[in-house]
Amino acid sequence: MAAAHGTVAHLLPQTYKRMVAAWLEEDCPSLDYGGFVVGEKVGEARLLGKSPVGRIDFVGVTSAHICLDLIFFNCDATGLSLCFGAAALDTLVDLAWWVSSVHPRTSTLIFVALCTRVGRAISNRLLKLVRNAGYTHTLAGTRKTTPGFRLVEKYGMLVGGCDPHRHDLSAMTMLKDNHIWASGSITSAVSVAKAAGGFAIKVEVECQSEEEAEEAIRGGADVVMLDNFSGEGVKVAAGNLKRRFGGVEGEKREFLIEVSGGLTEENVEGFVCNEVDVISTSSIHQGVKHVDFSLKIVH
Predict the structure, then answer these.
(1) What stretches in the chain show pLDDT beneath 70?
(2) What residues pair up with 82 in beta bridges, in sequence order?
(3) Most buried by CB count within 10 Å: which residue of 22, 48, 75, 191?
(4) What angle, rounded to 10 degrees, do the helices at 150-159 and 106-121 form?
């Protein structure tokens, strides 16, 4: 995973700074009456985790840290640091964000909640589930991210130890049923996609059967997705394809097998087999339980 090789924040483009400024501008496009009430008094505030869990996962909160630095900088706050520690205020988890001249903003809390839930979903649950089930390959998200918030959710996946999958439509060509129907066949669709993308753009084909996956591999697809298969169906198809095209019993082809479609915490273990190279699910970043926070001035 990327975090094992360096600081994931170094992957972020400079555009993220404009995104943060736009979030704040959207939240307060005109006069800030609440900020006027607070004034310029220097103080200290703490970000409190309110969700009913024993511990807000540190990885999830860390995934929000770099943009929080910029948020508070834009709010003229200084001295930002993170001290993950003991519970405070009954069941609240005290994350101790120390700032000065604070104007609490709802947009800030929403941002932390969204980014934290992605990192927490990966590190606390899904990744542990598949690893405990014996899966040694890649767990990935999908392209189906929240509009306008893709960069943050992809960043949260990386920090949490997950593969972010393709970042946009230009990052990899994924051929679905509509593309294939329009083109006439899987072989034709792959050929056209390869011609358009050249050697630098991978082509993936969404397959509904083992036979479709075989046609995609023979046509030159780089990745075949076994979509909406049963757990047992995945194991049979993946095993057959790797034997048939792995160079041991048959011809040698370079390809990856991805499994996706309806995978959740409740059923993902049933799809685990190491003939599958990638398990992808949007449940990492869609439908993840909200993590609630509150920013309170210390008084």
Answers:
(1) 1, 33, 35, 38-124, 248-249, 287-297
(2) 97
(3) 48
(4) 40
* Maximum Cα–Cα distance across the chain: 75
Rounded Cα distance, 297 and 83, in Å = 16
Strand partners, 145: none
Structure tokens given for 270: 């049933």
CA distance 69 to 195: 44
What residues contact residue 140 under an 8 Å CB cut-off, 6+ apart?
A: 157, 162, 163, 164, 165, 258, 278, 279, 280, 281
Rg (CA), the chain: 23
- 226: Cβ contacts below 8 Å, ≥ 6 apart: 207, 213, 233, 234, 237, 238, 257, 258, 259, 260, 276
Q: CA-to-CA distance for 298 and 100, rounded, in angstroms?
A: 11
Q: What are the catalytic residues?
A: 144
Task: Name the pTM for this structure.
Answer: 0.76
pLDDT value at residue 165: 93
Q: How many whole angstroms from its chain centre is CA 52?
A: 23
The structure tokens listed for 297 are 């001035």
Strands of the sheet containing 203-207, edge to edge, are 138-140, 278-280, 256-260, 223-227, 203-207, 173-175
